[in-house]
Amino acid sequence: MALIDVLIDELRDLYSAENQLVKALPKLAKGANDPELKQGFKDHLEETKSQVLRLRQVFEGLGKKPTGKHCEGMEGVIKEGAEALEEDAENASFDSGLIGAALRTEHYEIAGYHAAIMMSKTLGLNEAVGLLQANLAEEVNTAKKLQAAGKLIFKAATQEEEEDKDSQPASKKKASDKTSERKSKEDEKKAGV
User: Fold this and answer.
1) What is the Cα–Cα distance from 119 to 164, expressed in whole angstroms?
2) Per-residue model confidence (pLDDT) at position 164
3) How many domains does the chain have?
4) Distance of CA 132 to CAs 41, 52, 118, 135, 139, Å?
5) Residue 106 is assigned to a structural domain of this protein
6) Can you tell me the mean pLDDT for 92-118?
7) R_g of the chain computed on alpha carbons
């Protein structure tokens, strides 16, 4: 497989990921308690829509269609975000889970953009490099904003009274918690570390 084909595959992955986020970000914004975090999700939704348009420009420049691949990785990260929205936590503790999910999303995208930019540079695709760097800059900036919001929200969460789920009897744990705990033990066993 030629490098250009690998790049197109990577770009289609990013295109799918960004489109999935256009659907997921409004749910995070709606679920967030902290007004700054809520607005941050709304702002990033608009950025993400612009990122989709930039990716379309990259594909136009390459003479290729942007569709054709579903990003399974982003689907998994978004699923984790959906799980954070279902948590039984409240206020800052709840928002802390959303920040963790959102940071994983941003770092997944950042890695994809770094790879696509490096490949584009190697292939001499300067127009693509510029468009991809614009998307990367927005992702990095969003991650920094999430980290800044996280400092305040995490501090507030430490001041909230929380129930310790680990001290609950197993019969009171949700079925999804039991499944997650079982899978975590299986992962540990398979890793053999």
Assistant:
1) 47
2) 42
3) 1
4) 21, 11, 10, 5, 11
5) yes
6) 96
7) 19
